[in-house]
Amino acid sequence: MGAIIMAKVEQAQGSNADAKALADSIISSQSAEITTMRNLLKNL
To answer: How far apart are CA 41 and CA 12, in angstroms?
Structure first.
């Protein structure tokens, strides 16, 4: 979850549009991966 925290900080405090767009992408993709992993672990 470290990447998500860093991306949220960038969204809140960053000024570079490209970095903010990357932060959006990181949050979206990492959140989906975390959800997938949690679901897989529930089924073990």
So the answer is: 32
State yes or no: pLDDT of 1 exceeds 90.
Answer: no
pLDDT at 42 over 90: yes
* DSSP secondary structure of the chain: -HHHHHHHHHHHH---HHHHHHHHHHHHHHHHHHHHHHHHHHT-
Length of the chain, in residues: 44
What are 30's two structure tokens?
């990492």
Q: Dihedral sign, CA of 6, 9, 15, 18?
A: positive
pLDDT band at 13 (very low <50, low <70, confident <90, very high): very high
